[in-house]
Each structure stands twice: as structure tokens, then as C-alpha cells.
Amino acid sequence: MEKAKRIQLNIIMLIIFCLFPNLARADDISSKVNDYYYDELSILDESTKENIKKTNRELESKTGAQIVVLSLNNPDGLEGMDYGSDLFNELKLGDKVKDNGVLILFLEDKNTDQREIAIIPGYGLEGILNDAKVGRIIDNFMLDYFKNGQYSKGIDEGFNAVVSQVLSEYDITLDGNYEAYQENLEDGDGISMFEILFILVVFILISNMFTRISRGPSSYYRGRRRRNFPGWYGRSFWNDNDDDPFSGWSSGGGFSGGGFSGGGGSTGGGGASRKF
């Protein structure tokens, strides 16, 4: 009887892993993260590793935030945003109450030479690290290095840019020069002409809708609200894979004797990614 139950359980687990390969892979990776990073591709130099480790220890001690970096082989061609969200929630990055984790995920399919970088914030950081700003971090600080094969440098720069935004969110400072990253990203926070035109089009459509309503009963379309609204400039607008005040935080993980454990945070899948 016990043997039959074990066989049934194994069959169920096999079906789950076949239907949801991201979850199976995420569970495997979660046991390998150490000192806030796991470098399966061996692309991180010692300086970048030390920066990730040292900065995270100080940042987590002050805010509960965790910024984890993963470089992984991607032979199954998994999409960075979906895979990254599964990894994030498996690792439970950031504080459980404040949801202030961030995942920086570098993927490479050695069979096709296709690479992807994704940055995924927790729920609590989706204001300061909205989809558009995350896209700018990748474009402004990472892609040029990646295209020249300087993967460690690109990840280090992107990591520092993300840290700068977490510091702004909590109005704190760390050892290091983060002002340049903050200024660069603040300069891009103004509304663009393209965004103004988009707002104008939306305004006209809404005006027309109310005009039809005022004329009497008629059928009209109500747009479905997206998960990450507000933030119309998010992923749905750009069509790519492209603030929470500081308060007491409950520690549930972090650095301990060279290892890593998440603090209980979660993500809704915001952020951005780029393939190159």
C-alpha cells in the first residue's frame, strides 16, 4: 500500500515538473545561492562578487532589502521575466512585510548564443523601480558592456544602479558613490513627448466614451485594469519584457555564515528585460 502511494506521488510530481518546468528549475537554483549571488556561467569577477556581497550585507541590515544576482544557463529557452518571477518567489527575496527584494537575472542559451538580462523588483519597490526605469537601467548601464562581452562589468553597473534607487527609496546612504546613478535616472523621470501624445489619445478616447454614454444606453468597452496600475508607462505600454516609506522591518533571512536565505518577500512580475 505504501509503495503504491509513493508511486502515485512520484507520478504527480513528474506531471507537475513537466507542466511547470520553471518551478522545478527554480527549486534547484534556490539551494545554490550563496552570498546573494549564484554564478553558474562563471562570468562574475571577484570584484563584482565582493561588491554584491558587501553591499547587500549593509543594505539588508539597514532596510531588509536584498538584491540577488543570478547568472544561469538557459537551454530550454525560458522567458526571463516569467522564469525570474518564479525564481524570485522561490527565493522569497526581501523583507516579508515590505517586499523589497530585487532579482537581477542573466540568462544564456549556449546552444543558440541567445542571452537575456532581466531585473525584477518586489511589490514594495515597484514604485521606485517601475518598469520604465528598470528598462533605462538596463539600457543606460548594462547593454553596452554586454555587447562588448564585459558581462561582469555590466552586471556590476546595473547592480549599483539598482542599489542607488533603493537608497533613494529609504533616504539612506551606504559606502560608495551612488550619486551619479541617481542623477542619471532622475534626469529620465520627466515625461516625454511620446508619453504626452499617449495621454492625449487616452483622454480623447475616454471623452468619446462618455459622450456615447450621455446619448443613451449603448455598448462600450471597459479596459481591464492591469496588475501594476498605476504606472501606465509600464510593460504593457512599452510592449517589451522591459514608494514605500522606511519603517521597521522584520528580518527573516539574509547572510548567515556564508549562506543565503530570503526574508519572505514576493513579486508580481514587474520590471523589464532585454535580449541581446
Keywords:
globular, 5-stranded mixed β-sheet, 276 residues, 14% strand, 9 helices, 7 strands, alpha/beta, two-stranded antiparallel sheet
Walk me through the structure.
The protein is of the alpha/beta class and 276 residues long. The chain has a domain at 29-190 and 269-275. It has helices at 2-19, 21-30, 46-63, 80-91, 131-147, 151-170, 179-187, 193-214, 235-238; strands at residues 37-39, 66-73, 101-109, 114-121, 254-256, 259-261, 272-275. A five-stranded mixed β-sheet has the order 1-2-3-4-7. Helix 1 (2-19) packs across helix 2. The longest helix is centred in the C-terminal third of the chain and has 22 residues, at 193-214. The chain is globular.
Structural topology:
Blueprint: H1 2-19, H2 21-30, E1 37-39, H3 46-63, E2 66-73, H4 80-91, E3 101-109, E4 114-121, H5 131-147, H6 151-170, H7 179-187, H8 193-214, H9 235-238, E5 254-256, E6 259-261, E7 272-275
Parallel strand pairs: 1-2, 2-3
Antiparallel strand pairs: 3-4, 4-7, 5-6
Count of β-strands:
7
Strand content: 5-15%
Instruction: Name the helicity range.
Output: 40-55%
CA-based gyration radius? 21 Å
